[in-house]
# Entry
Amino acid sequence: MKINPFKLERYFAIYEFTAKYLLSPSDCESLPMEQLLKGADEESLKLWKDLKLGYTESRGHPILREEITKLYHNINVDDVITIVPEEGIFIAMNAILEEGDHVIVVDPIYQSLSEIPKSLGCSVTNWTVKLKDHRWSLDIDFLEKSICEKTKMIIVNFPHNPTGYLPTKEEFSKIIEIAKKHDLYLFSDEMYWLLEHREGEGLPSAGDTYEKGISLFGLSKTFSLPGLRLGWLVTQDKALMDKIANFKDYTTICGSASSEVLGIMALRQKETILKKNRERILDNKASAKDFFKRYNELFTWIEPRGGSIAFPKLSEKIKVVEFCDRVVKDKSIMILPGETFDYDGNHFRIGLGRENFKQILKELEAYIIEEIKNYY
Ligand SMILES: Cc1ncc(COP(=O)(O)O)c(C=O)c1O
# Structure
């Protein structure tokens, strides 16, 4: 299998643990272990205390899968398999796609969602999220027009990384209707699920509502626990679930025993964790909006509607790659250029989920005041 380097991950690999400030991470502030244990219920504390670090059940700990089903309406324990989130993309694509298949993928996109189909010999149509009246939007008619005889799957990611775009519930059900009408798989990367910014705007999960839907979710973003490397796929398609389980025997075989128990604890503290993350995102979003509007000669702010990231635009006077390069070299602030998503607009990603977001904006502001005027 030949696969291109993952541009975003390579960029993070250079700066994530060397830059002093990270303005672009997509996860929410990581939970300290102590806090997770402090909020844990008696049963999971006992599971933790009695834990033996052996191999685990390949599809995931039954209690963990039981907890996961509570996030959905029509999903039972057999419709869930635990994986590392990135592994879930790899396995699902490999289990479903074959050389010559055609897929339609939201664009820009977390690279593996389009790269893995390409590496398997599929043709890919990009379904581009565009700016319309200062808002991100997707043309649903384009989706239907792009379907051909060889189309096997539609690949979406809402709330969207990197724009924070979120379709309305009506738009999302149209996407499902189209998938259904043409008997297509719908792979729905829901890694930022439950982080919708307005109450009531959350989407249903594709795996929960459509028999050929496959949903990816996990603890890395919404639950502040990327270090557990714990996610899951849900689908009601039993034959597909078996194929996915067979494939997992060639990747990780089973999950980490300690992560499973910590995952049970986290899911049982869902309300507390989510409330804190949503509040922090909304607070940081308000600061970001103020900041980018204050420097509107340099930046255009585009409001995200969900998730923990936004994708503002930099003035065309400066190339975004050069801007990000200078800021990290001069100020040790890492900013992710849109180029890492193969996006040719002059945009960059910012992360709204971290505690030090406002402090980093202050550092960036000082830099802009001192330096950026010299660019003109
Ligand atoms: C849309 C999307 N899907 C999947 C992943 C992979 O998640 P993880 O890094 O926890 O494997 C990410 C991570 O950034 C993501 O943004």
Observations:
- The mean pLDDT is 97.
- The radius of gyration is 21 Å.
- Residues 7-32+271-375 form a domain with the Aspartate Aminotransferase, domain 1 fold (CATH 3.90.1150.10).
